[in-house]
Design a protein that fits this description.
Length: about 375
């Protein structure tokens, strides 16, 4: 049976991983500055993670959300403390798109309205409402166009004001650091004004932290760089270090009703064990501090390379912008120097999304290779 051919593939077959590296079937070592698309947070095959998952699957891998699952409560308590999102409630699901789908649905339930404001160059996932608020018509099928979405330019606060004052908007959804779009960000003034406008107009602010969350930005969540209080925060990627896991944090003002949201697999025992191992490791190894330290080092090194025109992003969610398209550069880094990096819809941008355990030596290895390729 052929696989449905939707992914352009590099001709590399990783079969194992350890820390910052993955290994192919011939034992060739690749430095992972891509983290499987910002997913690997605590490193490949981290011993605490392997131990927690192995133990849990040998006890109970799954049971449904119809029974008590104390692991979900443990995860929620730990997440509340580590994120600083005091009082928020947790709903668990399985992916980033699903997190945003639930966030949008909840905003619509809460306000009784349906229109959403999103931003140019956004990416929020592939399911129905999530893809409709994604600024890419080529991945929206006719069935997705039923949603009522208005796209605005990031930082155009007057346009946001005009739309919210029409009174039919349920939510504004925004990435505090754009991922797939290419690491563009709103200003502090924009985010703080946006938060205030949402509150004045009874519109829910959804911070999509699917990629920027869990310490990647140098704070637990990227919106914490600003004085804002989102109504809903969506999370996924780094949450399970590769175990499929997503969730939303829901402001205490939003009241739950039985049946309002639901899922078969979300928050299962194995996912919670993975999620707890990630949080425990982030804490024990002080990985958010490491993100900031290595990020500064990376930026310093990048600033000495004349071909790099702009360094974008925060923490270990970084983009290096060149004045040429980086497709060939990425290929040379992979095939000649065995280093994974990421691309973006901005074709001149090289994305750097390593495990948060990265050390300065790995950064040196990257820049030596980059200089050779350039
Ligand atoms: C900001 C953001 N939101 C949502 C998603 C969708 O996540 P998933 O692929 O887990 O559905 C992504 C994936 O790249 C993302 O970067």
């Amino acid at each position: 049976m052929p696989l449905f051919d939707v992914y352009p593939l590099y001709n590399i077959t990783p079969v194992s991983g350890k820390g910052m590296f993955v290994y192919d079937e011939n034992g060739i070592e690749y430095l992972d500055l891509y983290g499987g698309h910002a997913v690997i947070s605590i490193g490949h095959a981290h011993p605490n993670y392997v131990k927690a998952i192995t133990h849990q699957v040998s006890e109970l891998g799954f049971y449904s959300n119809a029974v008590q699952n104390p692991l979900q409560e443990q995860l929620a308590s730990k997440l509340e403390i580590m994120s600083g999102c005091t009082g928020y409630q947790l709903f668990l699901c399985n992916s980033g798109a699903e997190a945003n789908e639930n966030a949008l649905k909840l905003a619509s339930f809460k306000t009784g309205k349906a229109r959403v404001v999103a931003f140019n160059n956004s990416f929020h996932g592939r399911t129905s409402a999530a893809v409709a608020v994604t600024d890419n018509p080529s991945i929206n099928a006719p069935i997705n166009l039923q949603h009522d979405v208005t796209f605005l330019a990031l930082n155009d606060i007057d346009a946001v004001k005009g739309e919210l004052e029409k009174g039919d908007v349920c939510a504004v959804i925004v990435e505090c650091i754009q991922g797939v779009g290419g690491l563009d960000e709103g200003t502090a003034e924009f985010f703080e004004h946006l938060d205030a406008l949402c509150k004045i107009n009874g519109v829910l602010l959804i911070a999509d932290e699917v990629q920027s969350g869990y310490g990647r930005s140098g704070k637990f969540f990227a919106h914490q760089y600003y004085n804002v209080e989102p109504d809903i925060i969506s999370m996924a990627k780094g949450m399970g270090n590769g175990f499929p896991m997503g969730g939303i944090l829901i402001h205490p003002d939003i009241e739950a009703k039985h049946g309002m949201l639901g899922t078969t697999f979300g928050g299962n025992h194995l996912a919670c064990a993975a999620g707890l191992a990630v949080l425990n490791t982030l804490e024990k190894e002080e990985l958010v501090n490491n993100v900031n330290e290595v990020s500064s080092y990376f930026r310093e090194k990048a600033s000495t390379i004349p071909q790099i025109k702009k360094i974008k992003g925060k923490g270990l969610m970084l983009g290096l912008e060149f004045d040429f398209e980086v497709g060939d550069l990425r290929k040379k880094l992979i095939y000649s120097h065995h280093i994974f990096t990421g691309g973006a819809s901005n074709k001149k941008l090289l994305r750097i999304l390593p495990p948060l355990t990265i050390q300065k030596g790995h950064v040196d290895q990257f820049f030596e290779a980059l200089k050779k390729v350039l």
